Amino acid sequence: MELVDDGKESSNSVNEIEATNSPLISGLPDDISLMCLARVPRKYHSVLKYWKLIDGLPPQISKRKGIGFEALGNKLFLLGGCNGFQDSTNEVYSYDASSNRWVEATSLSTARCYFACEVLDEKLYAIGGIVSNASDLHSWDTFDPLTNCWISNRDPNIVSDIEDSVVVDGKIYIRCCRYPVTPHIYAAVYEPSSCKWQHADTDMVLGWRGPAVVVDGTLFVLDQSLGTRLMMWHKERREWTSVGKLSPLLTRPPCRLVAVGKSIFIVGKGLSTVIVDVGDLGNEDKVILGSSIPRLLSDFDVVSCKCLSI
């Protein structure tokens, strides 16, 4: 019996040693395996396949509402906003993804709250919104990272109640809030070559009834009036078509959109996320299939989504 027990103990010890010495990648020395793993692109890291919080958000802006949110270069920008009944602020903070650090950036020319924020030609735009001075109602600010300065401009086509914005074909489009007393939808387009705003295409504006995103120059809108349906704008045919419906089991409106490559991320309450590949749409008006990311335990609404590459 003792000899049998010794054999079992010896066998277990050998198995433990073999398990400890098993290579990271079968057939390769560990030093070479580590070099291979270190070169795997970040997008394939399994640790990135879930939502996580960014630490170090400046406490003075954690309670603000109506903040502008945009990505420029390898930085995220949080702009303006207001806190309760206090006036709008012109403060700007930036997050450097490479150093994982928040810093205070150059202030806006005009204090703003609930405004549109876009990037065009490597410049940051802060458009409309609630402002402190009546003279700034029809204004927008432009930030040039090369000079680190904001420049203020004015145009009568800019209004304060902006609900959404998007960049299409090298132009900025803004869609204004829709009220029961004024059922029509107002939208304006900015032409950078002339530095002027004008009324947007009526046919396009009529179908812009939700959050929008652009993939390869094509405008997509998520219509959330009756369920969640992804719509696509055909500029040659000047009409909207339905790409497909999203399962109510996966989407939790109100949702926001963000594009990463040829995929559209539809992010709803609690960061419940559905990912749709629009690179090969096939037939129109079908039920859309895609992958999903589980939501967080919290049930907060998503204000805005932006894509940042480092």
Short descriptors:
single chain, 310 residues, mainly beta, 5-stranded mixed β-sheet, 4-stranded antiparallel β-sheet, 3 helices, 11% helix, 36% strand, kelch repeat, Kelch-typ_b-propeller
Topology of this protein?
Elements: H1 2-20, H2 30-38, E1 68-72, E2 75-79, E3 92-96, E4 101-105, E5 112-113, E6 116-120, E7 123-127, E8 130-131, E9 139-144, E10 149-154, E11 162-168, E12 171-176, E13 187-191, E14 196-199, H3 202-206, E15 212-215, E16 218-223, E17 229-234, E18 239-245, E19 256-260, E20 263-267, E21 273-277, E22 286-287, E23 291-293
- Elements, N to C (H/E): HHEEEEEEEEEEEEEEHEEEEEEEEE
Rounded mean pLDDT score: 84
Low-confidence stretches: 13-19
Radius of gyration: 25 Å
* Strand segment tally: 23
| Biggest sheet features | 5 strands, mixed
In percent, how much strand structure appears in the residues? 35-45%
- Globular, elongated, flat, extended or rod-shaped: what is the shape? globular
Q: What is the straight-line distance between the termini? A: 63 Å
Task: Name the quaternary structure.
Answer: single chain
- Alpha-beta content class: mainly beta
Estimate the helix proportion, in percent. Answer: 10-25%
Separate helix tally: 3
Pfam family, one: Kelch_FKB95
Keywords: Kelch repeat, Repeat
InterPro entries: Kelch-typ_b-propeller, Kelch_1, Kelch_FKB95
Domain FKB95-like N-terminal Kelch: 68-254
